């Protein structure tokens, strides 16, 4: 890729014929500097020079490599099926409109709504169900730091004395909140269920897997329930209070599965990994592909998304409220490839850069030819 | 002198400068003396000469400060923009304090303006990394370690004095690459200060001692035995002349052997080991003359009891009693002795500069000798004329009493003595003239030529006579045959009828017209002038005229004179200032230093009289010469020989400059593209001062991840190898005028930083439009975002340096690849453990998870490539007009291809 010459200069840097023997024993101690390659700045060095001639092939190479990668990425991304439903309920016509309104709210009954949708294409393989929020600043500094990782790691002392960073979500009713902090307090708690409407009208609940949605290391190392209580989390957490917005304490997040309860509840873990941008999606459930491999995971057809709102206690609206800050709530169904979710950006970027490099290669070739000739001419008069 | 002996009558004697024992003097011929200390403490010469050694700062540092101001402005404006936008954003309902992110009570209670202020400060803290604080540490380290290379350089080692170069300051390394004006002393710097008697002229006849001079490796081999003189002048005149040479001096004979070691250490004295008889004198000229006389058969044996002994040609000992020594002083420019022969004749011998002797001798004798004197002067020899006068007893008595009175006078002693001397030294008859050569330093001409080729203007500042200095300049090829000399000396001022001031102005105007206005317009570029055959000018001025220029009788003219003078000088390749006092040397340096464009000046000298000039210039260089260590001690760099200046400037200076300039630009650049994504992130996190990178990355970026490669670069880089730098002096011009730290390159680097910062941030931003980046569908959070940006950043910035590195030693390799490896290792390590002392485990397995995502890999690769693409492209496109351009090729027969092969 580079024109290079390896240059090892001989280390003998004597320029003074008279200096021979100045270091002889018994003579006057000479201050003559050491004649080492380093000290004489004569270390052997590789001296690459980038020239048109060397960069040209590199450009062509990059072009040749990047364009196929880009095409591959683009095709892969395009093959990913993605379906997005906004269920915020802004419109009057929206089925979830009622639940998102203040006045229709009756505090005793829960609110749920069904959003029908149709899939045109079959979703093969595992389907991943995300919820997406927009205009929700999970990356706000005050929010990001409002957590106590050692509490979440099962540290007993932190459990009963959470970090000051959790303020103002540190204590309630003179008890320490577990898990403390703004992040945990605002845990996304809409319950999403998916039903398939068979052409014959019957309705099948689709099995949504709750586990495997959080990073393995988070689930197994970073987040841990406090020890003690013989596995009974209600004893462990007895001196703590639930986060103010929650309806139920942390040890009731998933009472059916002890490995998904308390701090190691994966919904909590996913939520605790703060998003990078105000519009984000988080993995909610996984729909595993059917064992027979014959029918697609989600065949094309009609579906119903059933949203059940659990009530946030301090809040005036029943659902997970986003309208106060112009937010949106979405559900995304997506298949996944080796490169992750659907994102045409990488493919386009690779194709563009590859083509630009290729184009530059052509231009450079042209310039190089022209310049090369001129250079030769210029040398002749000398 | 014996002032008082008990058995004698008390006599009044005078104490004058000749009785002063200066620092470093050694006792001779006596075991002890009694002395009185005069001039103590602050009155000593040393204290008086001590100029408050103001700290010298290099031009690079000034550029750094300017850049720093720009970045400070960027920092403040960033903070202001963010603070403003934050409050604009918050004014919208529901944004400031959404239900999920309540403030604490304390925050709510805080006064609004105080909150704004603290927000502003928080942004300042968040963005403060844009100010490269660590650069100062690196620059200091670079300078400190870099200066060792000068000390270590074997080429600077001089086998004669068994010493190499000395570095007294490490702050000015890069300034060596920026020199525009070189002020050099003549004696001892351009010349060896090793006088040799060349010829004499007796009564108009020339006596040249040697016809063939073998010159080998800078050492003259003399053909030992006494040369037969061709009898041209009468024997009597010859002998008189030689006697005069033997008597008219203050040389002392050094006893062979015993005091040799002592003599070696004496400052300013010349041990002469090659003869069985050594001479010691305050001026090397005198030794040369005495030795010259010795070669013609008259040997000075020494002074004992006020009797000077001479062995003449017949091997007889002649004895003369020394009556008076009329000392040499620079105003009279001559010295005399009054001696009495055995036969009772009283003789006055006088020797001195032609201009001071000729008016005092009979005019008819002058013409014959003047011819020789002038010819010798143009050949670069130092000439002296010798005259004598016979004093009658009465005359002597008058002189004796006059001198005695004058010496004892308490007031105006100097003036009285002077008057007495002048009175005595009249009506003499001229016997001859001598020529002494001060040989050029080794490779003086080559060095000067190289420096001129490098675009430096050379000013020779000397106390010597104009003719001598001029011939030295010719010998050093400072003046070439085609050089048009513009003289502004007392002589040119006086040949007009008009008054001196008017004449001065007239001449200045005339020269200005010739040298400045009529000269082809000089391109004010980096690469300039003089190779294309335009007329070169040399300018000569002497001390007296310079005083007139600097302090004209009417103050109003001062600025006019000065500006005319400066403009003329700036258009001359060489300026020769002769008959300079040490202070005037410094004055000139100061004037040039403060002139328009404040050029970088370099002074080089070897003696104590150059100290003021060395201190005044931007860079002071001392030569470890024969005139003691004063200059060396006060210099910034000391080298054993003049010829070493070439490598010091052309190779070391050039490299240091390129290295440090690149270092500075690189530091600003790398901090800009480090912090720009963090700034951009504020637009996406509600202006909440959320850092993009983890705290560990923030602190380690400048300290660990990106510091070593640039340090290695700034110590080892040789973008052009040393041999080529030495061969092509013109390469030096390409970095002249701080070329790499001007606003244009700075703008380039800044734009590069901005471009890359934008690339890093938005590239990852688009990737994160779908944060599900892993093949198991799991999503990445904000710390992953930061880590991807940071990884791209570290790699890009390091690879950018790798692209700039032209000289890859194993140290560069290990620094660059080692840093990258360390980054990866550190990231694994930092994210691999739950750190007990950390409140938040933000990066726990973030890096490892990032690497498990193919998309992250792909985005990192493409962003690195895309960020470096413009740089690569520019590098390729710039080559035709690059540093080794055709212009260079036109000067030297080497074309770029050859350079490449040789390098």
TrEMBL record, chain A:
Membrane protein topology class: Multi-pass membrane protein
Similarity remark: Belongs to the CDC50/LEM3 family.
Name of this protein: Cell cycle control protein
InterPro entries for the chain: CDC50/LEM3_fam (IPR005045)
Main location: membrane
Lineage of producing organism: Eukaryota, Metazoa, Chordata, Craniata, Vertebrata
Keywords from the named record: Cell membrane, Cytoplasmic vesicle, Disulfide bond, Glycoprotein, Golgi apparatus, Lipid transport, Membrane, Transmembrane, Transmembrane helix, Transport
Coiled-coil spans in chain: none
GO BP terms: phospholipid translocation
Transmembrane segments: 49-75, 345-367
UniProtKB/TrEMBL annotation, chain B:
Annotated active site: 185
Entry GO CC: endoplasmic reticulum; plasma membrane; recycling endosome
GO biological process, one term: phospholipid translocation
Transmembrane stretches, start-end: 120-139, 696-716, 746-768, 783-803, 815-835, 855-877
Cofactor or coenzyme needed: Mg(2+)
EC category name: translocase
Residues that, per the record, bind Mg(2+): 185, 187, 606, 610
Binding-site residues for ATP, renumbered to this chain: 185-187, 286, 328, 351, 382, 462-464, 579, 585, 609-610
Localisation per UniProt entry: Membrane
Domain P-type ATPase C-terminal: 632-879
Reactions mediated catalytically: ATP + H2O + phospholipidSide 1 = ADP + phosphate + phospholipidSide 2
GO molecular function terms noted in the UniProt entry: ATP binding; ATP hydrolysis activity; ATPase-coupled intramembrane lipid transporter activity; magnesium ion binding
Enzyme Commission code: 7.6.2.1
Keyword annotations from UniProtKB, A to Z: ATP-binding, Magnesium, Membrane, Metal-binding, Nucleotide-binding, Translocase, Transmembrane, Transmembrane helix
Protein family (similarity comment): Belongs to the cation transport ATPase (P-type) (TC 3.A.3) family. Type IV subfamily.
Designated name of the protein: Phospholipid-transporting ATPase
